[in-house]
Hints:
Structural class of chain A: alpha+beta
CATH topology of chain A: Alpha-Beta Plaits
CATH class of the largest domain in chain B: Alpha Beta
CATH class of chain A: Alpha Beta
Distance between the termini of chain A: 15 Å
Oligomer: heterodimer
Number of domains of chain B: 2
Shape of chain A: globular
Strand order of the largest sheet of chain A: 1-8
Strand content of chain A: 15-25%
Amino acid sequence: MKRIVIHEEHCIGCRLCEVYCLVAHSTSRDIIKAFKTERKTVMPRVLVEEDGPISFALQCRQCQDPSCLEACISGAMHRDERTGAIICDESRCVGCWMCIMVCPVGAIQQNLLGTQVASKCDLCYFADVPACVANCPNEGLTYEVIDEEARL
Amino acid sequence: MALSMSTATFVVDRDETRCITCQVCVRQCANDVHYYDEDGDRVLSRDDACVGCHRCVSLCPTRALVIRQNPLEFRPHANWTAGRLRDIYKQAETGGMLLTGMGCDQPYRIYWDHMLLNASQVTNPSIDPMREPMELRTLLGRKPERLAFEQGGALAAEAVPGPQLELSIPVMFSAMSYGSISINACQSLARAARQVGTFYNTGEGGLHPGLYAYGANTIAQVASGRFGVHLDYLNAVAALEIKIGQGAKPGIGGHLPGEKVTPDVSRTRMIPQGADALSPAPHHDIYSIEDLRQLIYALKEATHYAKPISVKVAAVHNIAPIASGIVRAGADIVAIDGMRGGTGAAPTVVRNNVGIPIEVALAAVDQRLRDEGIRHCASIIAAGSCRSSADVLKAIALGADAVYVATSALVAMGCHLCQNCYTGRCNWGIATQDPYLTKRLNPNIGERRLANLLRAWSLEIKEMMGGMGINAIESLRGNRDHLRGVGLNQVELDALGIKAAGC
Lengths: 152, 503
């Protein structure tokens, strides 16, 4: 399975990953419309963490043994067969926020925009390459097949 | 002074219908041109600080930005141009020398653009480089005068060539020091040189420990400041270059401001952290050709005569006899840097008024060395603004063995020639040591883009050589019959040693 690999030495803190993540998860998928008309209903699922010159873009690590999936009381959290991404089924999510409590990297956020759904990276399962990776200007994020065993 | 007569050079045009206030421009501008106005939820700009580097334009995800020249016009005056007035306003305010970066930006004649290459028609066949082998391999170093054999058939001592540098394309990356450019830029150059099979030059800033691995593709400089010069440095590399002068600022030394002397730069250069790195104008142990010979042979001794020694000089009025002296002093390579060559920092007045263009300097040197029968004793490298493969080919036809490119390499890595290298706030992460900015150049991307550039040029060079019916770059070297001048007067044609188009 392919995973998003973070290269903090190349992250320039521009936050274009956040911009394009928001666009990819908007209804219109048009950058100007997404920001000008949908801004109140859509948010990025990747967050750039910064401390001085060090920065990196953090999104869900798609754990092999995910705590969020185990903690989910409604069965909304499930693994996408094709990409292996952990995805939140919005129709089943009840907004108990247990996933947020147990996530070891803090990659899940409340969808505060009225829908009470947990918002997390879905590896852009609808596209070949996640939007954050495809649009990073400095290859600070890459989409690679990684050795799960070595990762553990 | 409350009143400044200096006006903004550029104007930032933001298309509000496209701006999504994502603030990428705010985060990317090291000159703080863009800022976010929270009250109005909009991004505004301070145009005065814009240097026209286009970082914001390139990264703006909605293409909402256009940087235009400030349309503010002075009353037209052919003598007192806007540039002259602005320079005086600035000097009257500051009382200082005006500084700048990159090569001369004045409209002196660019001779490359007045020379045309030949091609074969009917009487001699052209060659298709896609079907037949084309040789770009170039060897730099002292060549024997003639073939000679001992009794019994062994090659005679005088026929053995000196140590040579082998290039797969007659283009090398010119001297840019660690300090003037970032470690990521150095890494990109070093890796691309290794990938393509050519060389990059350390400049006078020493060799960072992380770059010793690329020693086989490195030319190391020994300059007037002797920064970072020690025995391991000399022996880690493929060739050594004594830097006498630089095309952008002939006759004057270098000045790396203390802010750029970070702990890493300080270690590499062997100077105190935060101290200005001052390269003296002359080498204080070289006041004559005889002195130069001593340093050349000191370096040869130190490296067991295993590496070619290059001497780099700026193209100045008497370049031909100077080059002759350098060759007679024992240099294996003479590098000549024309006045349009770049720099990380130079007084504007020097950059724009001192030296001569590389085209005429190269022609003069090649002719002089041939006339004196010592052309084989040293290879000639032409530097100082080869902007394309055509410029490279014209330089070789004028007599160069290879060319050095630096500005072209920087442009390949993202440089937009804003000419503000001396400020240390390069938004493209090249001419800076600021940890926020140096990250912006990913050496993996830099290497790829530089290697792509050289690959593209080598394809174009082969295509043009094929058109001339030449299948080895050797056959074009100094072959000025393949050049014709357009729009040049007889004096210029004679200086270049070429015929006018139609003759």
